[in-house]
């Protein structure tokens, strides 16, 4: 009864109480699984007292969602010793979130309860335990897994695999030229694929970051410029998007999609320009009416003589022209772009 009443230990990195763990049966020894480890577990999950998962499964830590094991359980597994049994309380953030999981009957935004036993495990090698060539082989496997998950629409799993790729091939010291080339190609592929997955998820800041990292490896990579342009475009950073689309076309003049998207950006910039002109026009009209009213009042009171202190038409036109910042911005960002240049297919 005491263990049931105990709220449990918060095992989240953020200490946000999203995963609370209580030990039901202590385990054996001191070792625990790490990211990438093979594990065999017994797991029972309930939501509002109803069992939705009750089976023995084997999985690789980091790929639990492939067998409907959420992040909260995977996090807990890295704290267990062999034959340890624990009880978990998992909030939606570390469970199945707002989407839920229709396959196993978990509703949206559900708090989950689990009982988990770690039957057996084999730790994965840490990065410092691997040689450079071994890391390359591991990275190839992770890349293939990431692509498999991406095609299946399992984007979070794909991100984990592609991120693993970039971690494995961060350095190339001690490699011959051929292996350095493989290492470089894998690093580039990892960054490009991360940019693509984040675009699919609508996480455009992350997409932009990884496309930029790809360009550090290959400054003339068409895919990297295109994906960075897409991220800028979705963030309404139109000048940067147009610049990147132009770079794509300088490297691949036949890229019809880049031409179309560049034209979309141009039209959107023109739309913004028109809105700004309306805003600035209304603002200066108000200033003019205000000044005219003040001048009339001053004349009436005998404060100003004719022509003194008036805002002449020439001055008004000059101020309005200088105040039309939207046109200046468009010309500097659009440069020599014309819409009809990007509508034609090649």
UniProtKB/TrEMBL annotation:
Q: What is its EC number?
A: 5.2.1.8
Here the segments flagged for biased composition (Basic and acidic residues) are 312-324
Locate the PPIase FKBP-type domain: which residues?
36-122
Q: Where is this region: Disordered?
A: 306-330
Q: What is this protein called?
A: peptidylprolyl isomerase
Which reactions is this enzyme annotated as catalysing? [protein]-peptidylproline (omega=180) = [protein]-peptidylproline (omega=0)
Organism of origin: Hirondellea gigas
Q: Which InterPro entries match?
A: FKBP4/5/8-like (IPR050754), PPIase_dom_sf (IPR046357), PPIase_FKBP_dom (IPR001179), TPR-like_helical_dom_sf (IPR011990), TPR_rpt (IPR019734)
Record-linked Pfam families: FKBP_C, TPR_16
Keywords on record: Isomerase, Repeat, Rotamase, TPR repeat
GO terms for molecular function, please?
peptidyl-prolyl cis-trans isomerase activity
TPR repeat placement: 188-221, 222-255
Domain of life where this protein originates: Eukaryota
